[in-house]
Amino acid sequence: HYSVIEGKGFRTLAENQKVEFEVKVGPKGPQATMVKKFAAAK
After folding, report:
1. Which of 8, 16, 24, 25 is the most buried (most CB within 10 A)?
2. Vertex 33, ends 9 and 31: CA angle to 5°?
3. Which residue in 15, 16, 24, 22 sits closest to 36, CA to CA?
4. Contact between 29 and 23 (Cβ < 8 Å)
5. 4-42, pLDDT tens digit by residue?
6. Among 5, 3, 1, which Cα is nearest to 21's?
């Protein structure tokens, strides 16, 4: 769900975009939380 994407403003992800996230156990099993867009090293 978009509500777990970290950041300000409109929170969206592009198809195949790399992300970092934490995993928590929810009522239906594992789920991603604290999703952040992956920042590649420059």
Report:
1. 24
2. 135
3. 22
4. no
5. 777 766 677 789 989 899 999 999 999 999 888 877 666
6. 5
Q: What global pTM score does this model have?
A: 0.61
Is 6 within 8 Å of 19 (Cβ atoms)?
no
Neighbours of 33 (CB within 10 A): 14
pLDDT at site 17: 86
- The rounded distance, in Å, linking the Cα atoms of 30 and 34 is 13
Count Cβ neighbours within 10 Å for each residue of 20-31 and write b for 16 or more, e otherwise. Answer: eeeeeeeeeeee
Q: What local confidence, expressed as pLDDT, does residue 35 receive?
A: 85
